[in-house]
């Protein structure tokens, strides 16, 4: 099933939007964690009065650089979100903040939905350890200092409760984002599935319509041609019994060929009534018997036919080779029944298929059987379906059918015949 194509401009806009969001979150996260370095004892020296300024130690500078490196993992959040989750866990366990681990949890849950429970347990445990350490130790001075300028405020019950509430709210919001993302993904999958089913239903309906049309054509062919061919075969048999010598032999050939044509027509009618893929296509193995039948009917044919590994050829190629040769010979007989016909057929898995059939044209004499150019059109269509090359036409008093087809192994399908993948 194909997905709808997205214009290049739209892709560029979406990519630019994702890049801008990534940079914005990265900058904001680095700023927050730079301030949160104050949480770690020894990373900064807090002034005794509210008017003083914080001085960052060398250890604090190293933590700021570590936070910057950790937040850089956001660049790989789509392909490697676990790196982001691990980096956030390191920052949280050191005591900077647990903000990055929450972003990493969201990205990891999207990338690995089957590990959602494990990701949730790890994220909750990291946040719980972070808050527990703030409550029981000297960690956690950043928030009270920046809001009240009180370096001892972290030990007051109000800030302890505030730390717990903030942590619970952050975890709950993270869980909500994850579940909302999963719900949105389910909706997208449902839409894709519905679109696939609709396409499938349309294809089945089209196939049903085509099969009904094939059955109608089969009925029309049977009603229009079967009776006439039967009458011709009957009269040819009567002529064979009444005449003798060359005339009787000719009548016998007419009867046999008419009977063969009737059998071929019945086979084609059966193919039309069959569902696609159920019919038994013609085969290049029948080229030899076809030439023998024409020679028996006094058609002058010089043939060179070499067919190697026909069992390896795809059904489409196997049928096309036989049908092209059959139609080219039919065309030659219609327009010049007594002129010699040169037949060259070479089939090789290494080099492909080459068919060349040449016959002289009857100058100034109408064809014995009128044609409608449908045979030539059919040959071109078969060649085109197999990505081959065909040259069909008259040249210096001769009519030439020259066809080259690429080899196609059984089980393969030509790109021209498949269309867009579903």
TrEMBL record:
Keywords: ATP-binding, Kinase, Membrane, Nucleotide-binding, Phosphoprotein, Transferase, Transmembrane, Transmembrane helix, Two-component regulatory system. Its EC number is 2.7.13.3. InterPro entries: HATPase_C_sf, Sensor_HK_TwoCompSys, Sig_transdc_His_kin_sub3_dim/P. It comes from the Bacteria. GO terms for molecular function: kinase activity. It is an enzyme of class 2 (transferase). CDD domains: HATPase_UhpB-NarQ-NarX-like. Residues 213-275 form the Signal transduction histidine kinase subgroup 3 dimerisation and phosphoacceptor domain. SUPFAM superfamilies: ATPase domain of HSP90 chaperone/DNA topoisomerase II/histidine kinase. It catalyses: ATP + protein L-histidine = ADP + protein N-phospho-L-histidine. The chain crosses the membrane at residues 20-42, 54-76, 82-106, 118-146, 158-180. The keyword Kinase applies. PANTHER family: NITRATE/NITRITE SENSOR PROTEIN NARX-RELATED, NITRATE_NITRITE SENSOR PROTEIN NARQ. This is histidine kinase. It comes from Microbacterium profundi.
